[in-house]
Amino acid sequence: MPATTVQPSTVPGKLVYFSSPKDGSRPFVRVNLDPSSTESRFNYIAVEHTLPIEDVRGKEHLYTLDTAGFQYFQHKAKHTSFSNDEEIEREYYPESTELLKKLTGASKVVLFDHTIRRRRPGEVDTDVTKRQPVTQVHVDQTTQSAINRVHRHLPESEAPELILNLWRPISKPADDWPLTLCDFRSINRAEDLVPIALIYPDREGETYGVKHNPGHKWKYLRGMTPEEIVLIKCFDSIQDGSVSVLTPHTAFEDPSTPEGSPLRESIELRALVFYD
Predict the structure, then answer these.
(1) 67 in the Ramachandran plot: left (φ > 0), alpha (ψ -120 to 50) or beta?
(2) Where would one find the signal peptide in this protein (predicted)?
(3) Cβ atoms < 10 Å from Cβ of 232
(4) What phi, psi does 177 have (nearest 5°)?
């Protein structure tokens, strides 16, 4: 009989963390920067640390939005091509809205954008058509940028309880550079998170850079398929310590990835979630 390959339950992952600029200036990153520009794309220091990353397949139930800040589900999408933004908005948005309502019990869900990521080694990530997996530990929104984001899409009188990402692989399993998430219960929000200005050509946003903490507990679902999704909490209006508030995450090079695996492709939707 052929030998059976036993996958390790934990792999070493080289994760890129944030370190503050040496001159004490406000950290920034310029988004969609013209490749011919002589301006610096960012001014902070990226520091690599190797940490254990646990495969949670078979025990996904231990990680929920309220506890860990992320949660895995099985769901086969009706829309599967993900090749045209208009089709995605017309076909994938409605089914995802209903899915989010079902999974979270929300009374209202507003999807405000999406990003398709396709890993292309050597290609520069210069605009929305060339987005690659993010290879630095980050949180998508700070509290202030979450509030600003809401006001860009809705009247100030409307306040969502949650901002979530719905993430899934496209067309094939995400063995190559998979997504890993940090259990909220293992982070120190006061010490680990640093706001970074996102400078676009026409506006400014803000995200959290994440400082290294040896206590961080990193998880992933090895070989996630297009029929599997993960909900990622970016913001929670409840910040009294009773539930998770956000989720640091990053792509990483999994040393157990089979040789010749297809390059990773994925889509993430961003949603404002309301409850009556």
Answers:
(1) alpha
(2) none
(3) 24
(4) 45, 65
Which H or E run contains 113?
Answer: strand 108-118
- Chain segment 189-237, per-residue pLDDT in tens: 999 999 999 998 888 889 999 999 999 999 999 999 999 999 999 999 9
- Say how far apart CA 250 and CA 112 lie, in whole Å: 21
Please tell me whether the overall predicted TM-score, pTM, comes out greater than 0.90 for this model: yes
Q: How far apart are CA 118 and CA 121, in angstroms?
A: 10
pLDDT tens, 11-52?
999 999 999 999 999 999 988 777 777 788 889 999 999 999
Kindly state the greatest CA–CA separation across the chain. Answer: 66
How far apart CA 165 and CA 104 sit, in angstroms, is 12
- Of 232, 211, 233, give the one whose Cα is nearest residue 221: 232
CB 59 within 8 A of CB 72: no
- CA-based angle 98:220:49, to the nearest 5? 135
Closest CA to 107 of 161, 143, 71, 169: 161
